[in-house]
Design goal:
heterodimer, A: 374 residues, mainly alpha, ABC transporter involved in vitamin B12 uptake, BtuC, 2 domains, B: 367 residues, alpha/beta, Rossmann fold, 7-stranded mixed sheet, 6-stranded parallel sheet
């Protein structure tokens, strides 16, 4: 699954620029139309589910529209919720390109966020806010990178299954944070909720001008674009995809697959660590158990739905943010349990994964004479 | 092999139809009733903390002129702020209640500043007149009083004189429940001791079950707990054939044989108070708290595990608490022998809110 989503012609030499563009547009449309159809089908299936419960699908979808996208408030609500998902999804997408299923984003988010909060303790009140924030961000990113890097290194050096090790590292990361937050770094003025000392309002990351959304969204979008360029337009990205497609062939070509694996794992950890930094610096203002909010795990879903394509992660994360944002309104108005939204998410996931088999099967998207170019 | 051909027209048509259906759904008219929004951190039917609130909201929904909107499973991150904001913006909530500790700072503080004409109330004693906005406030119940009643009944229900307590974290409110339970048990059975196991977090079902098994293996024949959702503790204890006392909400249906009674919050007293005041246009108090003396806690109706003797003693204990008879009669020593409670304290004395010790009679350590 590593590189099938790659737009055609991204790495191959362009023979005929004009016709190549039209081919790319036509074939690219497939990657938009099929997910849209899949979304519509999952909407239909979910409507059947709602009808079985005796609820109105029309009411449900109008509430989703209103609660997730319909008003300026709803849209910002959706975008804000999607910000951490973009970064944690990237933490899955990058290793997936090199053939690894890394699911340790949650741990890197928590440990990265914790490290950012911890490094801020001696700086707050002494260093200026901008310097502090930059140091916090670098720390969060570096610690997150090292954290998932461990799983990558174990894969490379010891052949340890990276899925298992990255998942287990998540629990170790959470335990380390709890150990310090409930012990030596605990803010004693807060007797009932073990937390690190708050960094204070002056040191928090602000909102983007004119919106209620913090800068994490912009950072996530920029990061996604940067990683897309890295993976599709550079020799490094090319090497990554070869190693992901066939590690033996890559080795035979003289690529240092082990190094690529560790670097991709570190990039993944860095993305999640950045999410942790924003969670601390823009939202919580301190590190505590609230960092363990499941963003790392939802990110896995987002990345798979986006077929591990960094650019596609952005709209998928926004869709997820919207479903979760409107889930509250649905609960409140239709008297449905919270799990209803999980049913919708699960259906969407299944139908989208099933729809993968449809690629290349509609003649409309095929341009004669270009089949060999995939 | 041939596959169905889907034309552009079909795709466009169905997409447009879908969009139209989504946009044209009926808009919900703004409500004129008092709208109370409440946000829970877990599921409403957790047999614990969240259920205790949800039960009160069900009671509130029967009051004419009051509409309640609920949202469950909302984590303590900006998701809770957005859920609350959504209640204000889309449901027209007049008052929003946050029931999880981490909702307060910074989320509810910021919201209260942003929406000055909406009341925000949070279920833990965190509001501080000097620091926080006036449309924000706190409410909580002294559940340790109901645990004290549990202890009175438990003291008469044990044969081994060993009572087991499964606790989440060694923080003030948990320690106060353990100590009050122990003091209740000592009242009816001076030989009783309370053995505590801390699991380390609010919801760790596997470790909670292990703790129950360890306590029963150590000879405890009455088990109670302070964890978010006591379901696992009560069910495991019932399976092991020992008696149980509940916590937060009613767990009576989970233990048809061994359930004695349980400590429950009576949030409806507070919620109905808020709704009435809002309907009359009166200002809401910023701090509402109390125990039996103000009808804010209660004990679950006695189960099959409660003997006639235990029922009588517990009922008398409730009457004492309603008459404000103190639980902490000093001097009392902690487990290390230091006098930590020098004199008799009133049940609502703020000194007791700072509890960071286990009293003599409890077996266990907080470090």
């Amino acid at each position: 699954m590593a590189d099938v989503s790659e737009p055609l012609g991204a790495v191959l030499p362009i023979l005929d620029a004009k016709s190549d563009l039209s081919v790319r547009v036509r074939r690219g449309a497939e990657y938009i139309a099929i997910p849209l159809i899949a979304l519509a089908v999952s909407g239909l299936l979910f409507s059947v589910f709602l009808l079985a419960l005796g609820k109105s699908p029309a009411e449900f979808f109008s509430l989703v529209e209103r609660g997730g996208f319909g008003t300026a408030f709803s849209l910002q609500n959706t975008l804000q919720r999607s910000a951490p998902l973009i970064m944690t999804a990237l933490a899955v997408a990058v290793p997936a390109r090199v053939g690894l299923i890394m699911i340790g984003g949650e741990g890197a988010l928590v440990i990265g966020g914790f490290a950012a909060a911890a490094i801020a303790i001696p700086l707050v009140g002494r260093a200026p806010p901008l310097t502090t924030l930059i140091i916090m961000a670098i720390t969060g990113v570096a610690v997150g990178a090292c954290w998932v890097g461990i799983a990558g290194f174990l894969r490379y050096a010891r052949g340890v299954n990276e899925t298992i090790s990255s998942l287990l590292l998540t629990y170790i990361g959470i335990a380390i944070m709890n150990f310090f937050v409930e012990g030596s770094l605990r803010d004693l003025t807060n007797p009932n909720k073990p937390s690190t000392k708050p960094i204070g309002e002056a040191y928090m990351v602000g909102k983007m001008p004119g919106t209620d959304i913090h800068w994490g969204l912009a950072a996530g979008v920029l990061l996604a674009i940067a990683l897309q360029i890295l993976l599709s337009r550079t020799t490094f990205g090319f090497a990554v995809r070869i190693a992901g497609g066939n590690p033996r062939a890559a080795l035979a070509q003289g690529l240092s697959v082990g190094k690529l694996i560790v670097i991709c794992a570190m990039i993944a950890g860095a993305c999640a660590g950045l999410a942790g930094f924003f969670e601390v610096a823009a939202i919580q203002g301190r590190a505590n158990a609230s960092l363990v909010a499941g963003y790392g795990f939802t990110g896995i879903l987002v990345s798979f739905l986006a077929r591990h394509n960094p650019i596609a992660i952005i709209p998928v994360a926004i869709l997820f943010g919207g479903i979760v944002a409107s889930g509250g309104l649905v609960q409140r108005r239709m008297d449905l349990p919270d799990a209803t939204v999980l049913v919708l998410q699960g259906l969407t996931f299944l139908v989208l994964l099933t729809s993968e088999t449809l690629y290349g099967r509609f003649s409309f998207f095929r341009v004669s004479g270009t089949e060999d170019r995939t | 092999m041939r596959y169905p051909y889907i034309s552009r027209r079909v795709v466009l048509k169905s997409t447009a139809a879908g969009l139209l259906a989504a946009v044209s759904g009926a808009r919900i008219a703004a409500a004129k009733d008092i709208v109370l929004g409440i946000v829970y951190v877990g599921p409403r039917d957790d047999f614990g903390w969240n259920q205790a609130h949800a039960v009160a909201i069900q009671a509130l929904k029967t009051v004419p002129g009051v509409k309640a909107v609920e949202e469950e499973n909302v984590p303590e991150t900006d998701a809770c702020a957005k859920s609350m904001e959504s209640m204000v913006n889309l449901d027209g909530a007049n008052i929003v209640l946050g029931t999880s500790f981490g909702y307060f700072d910074p989320f509810m503080i910021d919201l209260a500043k942003k929406y000055a004409n909406v009341e925000f109330r949070h279920a833990a004693p965190l509001w501080n007149a000097a620091k926080h906005p006036k449309n924000l406030g706190s409410y909580f119940g002294y559940l340790n009083q109901a645990h004290h009643v549990d202890g009175i009944a438990a003291g008469l229900s044990t044969k081994s004189n060993k009572l087991g307590f499964v606790a989440a974290k060694p923080i003030a409110s948990v320690l106060s429940n353990i100590n009050s339970f122990m003091l209740g048990a000592k009242k009816t059975n001076p030989n009783a001791v309370v053995q505590v196991i801390f699991t380390g977090d609010w919801s760790l079902p596997v470790r909670e079950a292990e703790a129950v098994n360890a306590l029963v293996d150590a000879g405890c024949d009455v088990i109670t707990c302070h964890v978010d959702a006591p379901k696992v503790v009560i069910e495991t204890a019932e399976k092991r054939g020992v008696k149980t006392c509940g916590h937060n909400a009613s767990q009576a249906p989970l233990a048809p044989k061994g359930f004695i009674t349980g400590a429950e919050y009576k949030w409806e007293t507070i919620y109905k108070g808020y709704a009435t005041k809002l309907a009359e246009g009166q200002p809401l108090p910023n701090m509402v708290s109390g125990g039996y003396e103000s009808d804010m806690v209660r004990n679950t109706p006695f189960g099959a595990g409660a003997s006639e003797e235990a029922r009588k003693a517990a009922t008398a204990g409730i009457a004492d608490l309603k008459a404000k008879k103190p639980i902490y009669v000093g001097p009392l020593k902690d487990t290390k022998g230091n006098v930590v409670i020098d004199k008799t304290y009133d049940n609502l004395d703020p000194y007791l809110d700072q509890m960071n010790y286990l009293l003599e009679g409890v077996i266990g350590s907080i470090t």
